[in-house]
Amino acid sequence: MTFDLVFRNARIARQEERIVDIGVRNGRFEAIEAHLPPGTGPEEVCGGALVLPGFVETHLHLDKSCILGRCRCREGTLSEAVSLVAQAKRDFTEDDVYERARGTLEMAILHGTTLIRSHVEVDPRIGLTGLHALKRLKRDYAWAIEIEICCFPQEGLLDDPGCDAVLVAALEQGADLIGGAPYIDRDAHGQIARIFGLARSYDLDIDLHLDFSLDATTLDAEEVCRQTDIHRWGGRVAIGHASKLSMLEPARFATIARRLAEAGVAVTVLPATDLYLMGRDRDHAVPRGVAPAHRLIQAGVNCSLATNNVLNPFTPFGDGSALRMANLYANVAQRGTPEGLAECFDMTTSRAAALMRRQDYAIAPGCPADLVMLDSRSRAEAVATLAPALVGYKAGRKVFERPRPVLHRPTGGAEAAGGS
Predict the structure, then answer these.
(1) CB neighbours (10 Å) of residue 319?
(2) For residue 420, is pLDDT > 60?
(3) Neighbouring C-alpha atoms within 13 Å toward the C-beta of 87
(4) What is the pLDDT of residue 412?
(5) Angle 308-327-294 (CA atoms, 0-180°, nearest 5)?
(6) What backbone phi and psi angles, to 5 degrees, belong to 300?
(7) CB contact at 8 A, 56 and 17
(8) Cα separation of 184 and 154, whole Å?
(9) Please, what is the average pLDDT of the chain?
(10) What is this structure's pTM?
């Protein structure tokens, strides 16, 4: 049997105890065995390195990335970030969005990401500019990565005259799912109801920015669960941020975690943004503001970790590395055991893919031959060391490679001997 490509001596994530050969034919994995015969096709030698179908970004704003130089940030607050981006995007053009998003997308690809859900703002000011740019990007980079476009109103829906019509137009013109930011509207539950109504009409999944503060007096997550039950949308709803969950005492946290699990509402935690924006009014004992995803998982909630923003007022840093988010969360949540680190890895890979309802995310016969090789032997080691992505494939075609660095030691003399 011959293959288009054979990966030799690979450790598949979540099966790290085995070293296998992986055969690819016609853009799909066809065989996974301990030893495939020699001479069965071109080879990529993995040398025992960890391989996975690629990192999955469940929450990234490509359209407003890399605008930090256009914004004069003084307070570092959420309200300032919303205001500054609202001003900046009035000057966005389709080509401008495309070029900035392309740069961020290429960073993510080179860090081993193969699937992204990108939130895109639509409203009467920006119109569908971001959507059109992201649709172009989605088409132009299909050879390297899959992009899912989630259109949402960042500056309110009910309180922003004309926004509803723009959002509907975005759904008509090919948005993959619908989102929202209920905390912006005075009637947050009204926005939630409208989003669910549109999702039902267009048969779309939902991904909301939700409960993004440290005041846990009220939780919009409860209304999202209620609407999910009413519409029978379980498994098709995700909420991002949910920083209020970090402020709940154990009994109330257990109650809301159980409710999320029962309703089938997933949670995406965005550690970089939430750490940066939350608690800025405190001068001591500053809360982290990062929802405890690992405790939600223990209660049966599916969770992912994601980047959110790159180089803008919401998050004035970032390099598009999903693994960096896993590492950051592990630090913040104090997840240092091999099992805890591996769980952080899963929240940027298999759990994130499940949140996006991807049934074929696996290195297994019949699945698309998407594969990224990390300079690591295990999921835990990858998170702990921020293991670089060495090579990536999409549908069996090489997308990028990053050779391991070489240390050039002196070859002779006193320096080689360590003398003086």
Answers:
(1) 13
(2) no
(3) 12
(4) 75
(5) 80
(6) 100, 10
(7) no
(8) 8
(9) 96
(10) 0.96
Rounded Cα distance between 46 and 10, Å, is 5
Q: What is the pLDDT of residues 294-306, one digit of tens each?
A: 999 999 999 999 9
Distance CA 259, CA 222 (A): 8
Closest CA to 170 of 57, 63, 305: 63
Confidence of residue 418 (pLDDT cuts 50, 70, 90): low
Residue with tokens 């860090």: 111
Please give the Cα distance from 403 to 391 (Å, whole number). Answer: 8
Model pLDDT, residue 285: 95
Q: What stretches of 104-249 adopt beta strand conformation (E)? A: 113-121, 146-152, 177-180, 205-210, 237-241
158/243 Cα distance (integer angstroms): 23
* Each residue's pLDDT tens digit, 48-95: 999 999 999 999 999 999 999 999 888 999 999 999 999 999 999 999
Which CA distances in Å does 76 have to 209, 282, 315?
A: 19, 13, 9
* Per-residue pLDDT tens over the stretch 185-201: 999 999 999 999 999 99
Closest CA to 246 of 292, 212, 282, 280: 292
d(CA 281, CA 304) in angstroms, rounded, equals: 28
Q: Distances from the Cα of 404 to the Cαs of 112, 164, 374, in angstroms?
A: 15, 50, 10
The residue behind tokens 């070489």 is 406
Inter-helix orientation angle 188-202/163-172, to 10° = 20
CA 231 to chain centre: 26
Q: Looking at residue 120, what is its pLDDT?
A: 98
> What's the rounded Cα separation, in Å, for the pair 349 and 111?
13
